[in-house]
Amino acid sequence: MKSNDFTSGAILPKLMKFMLPVLFAMFLQAMYGAVDLLVVGRFGSTADVSAVSTGSQIITTLTNLIVSFSMGITVAVGQRIGQKRPKDAAQTIGTGMVIFAVTGLVFTLISIIGASGLASIMQAPKEAFELTSGYIRICGGGFIVITAYNLLGSIFRGLGDSKTPLIAVGIACLFNIIGDLVFVAGFNLGASGAALATVMAQLISVIISFFMIRHTKLPFEFHKSNIKLNKSVAAVIIRIGTPIALQDFLVGISFLVMLGIVNRIGVTASAGVGVAEKVCVFIMLVPLSFMQSMTAFVAQNYGAGQMKRANTALKTGIAVSFAFGIAMFFITFFRGDLLAGIFSPEADTVKAAWDYLKAYAIDCLNTCFLFCFIGYYNGIEKTKFVMLQGICGAFLVRIPFAFLMQKIGNNSLFLIGMAIPCSTVLQIAMCFAAYFYFRSKNQISCDMTENKTEL
Description:
Elements: H1 11-43, H2 46-82, H3 86-113, H4 115-121, H5 129-141, H6 143-158, H7 163-186, H8 190-214, H9 231-263, H10 267-283, H11 285-303, H12 307-341, H13 347-379, H14 383-408, H15 413-417, H16 419-440, H17 443-454
Helix pairs in contact: 1-2, 1-7, 1-8, 1-10, 1-11, 2-3, 2-5, 2-6, 2-8, 2-9, 2-10, 2-11, 3-5, 3-6, 3-9, 4-5, 5-8, 6-7, 6-8, 7-8, 9-14, 10-12, 10-13, 11-12, 11-13, 12-13, 13-16, 14-16
């Protein structure tokens, strides 16, 4: 396998060629989570739907910590490939494997021991409390697998390979569908069956992926001796990945707080928001895939000292994703009931989901800017700023606005959901301000010099 060189050639074709497999992989990943809710919605109770909704949000928040932290590997590997230093890329991957093995063990203990506590913090409805705890406990027991599954994707994206993660996700999605049909529809295990299907599918995907890697020619030699903790390499990964992970964690907490607010309204509202969140993953696919692609693309050009090319890639990504954002806005705002109806046959649940989705529809117009900026800033190692803008959006706007609307908005899910696009507007304003500030101070060029010296 040859790594993709993003430092030369036409930008749009190369960006799209890399982005499309990322998009398809994220689509399959979305299907992976959606199938759980879809099957549970058809063969389980409203309490099961609520349990999967709340439990999956917690597991997703913890998983996003891993994914975000692994961005440190994606950026570090991408920079070394851009700098034509393949041996250092191998050393980075080996150190990353050690770090994430420890991380997976810690998250496993947290999820198993603290399952009931997490469900309680989320104010899971009484009817769904035990089901929610069980879902968290089962998924949490497989966090080592979840960690390996996401680590593999981050490594290959750093190498400029977005096809191998696509294959891994496709395998997981296929076996998750089979598992859901067996455990939920066949054995009538409800939320617990969905959790079992998720862990087993990812385990099978990881095993198959390792066999694929062993028979794939990498752009460098990788040996068992590379799998060790190198302090200087670990420091780079932690320096890049920690702010991203902290930002995503705190943003995830803000969404969990919003779900906790909704859970206080009742089990129907809880199920409705759970359905809306699954739909949201699909309508946000294009900007999310551009965010991941932008990080890898910009990291290589940053490593090669080609910031003008990185800036052009940012503008290109925003333009393309904005066109899709307009389409998603109209579909979601005016026919969100059709989208929600895919996941639940219950009229009340669909109505609640559509009410919440109208706020997400508005956010479709914003995220094409925000997510491309986040990918860009991650790629140039401005991860502390990424953390700052995420925290400001979450704690200055999203949470206070949601609390306010729950108090004065007559429990309207649309008004509570409007906290999301309102926070995004603040984050976009901060991203634009930072972009012009860094350019005026020529800070990017200075950082490039320091970066090459350090690496």
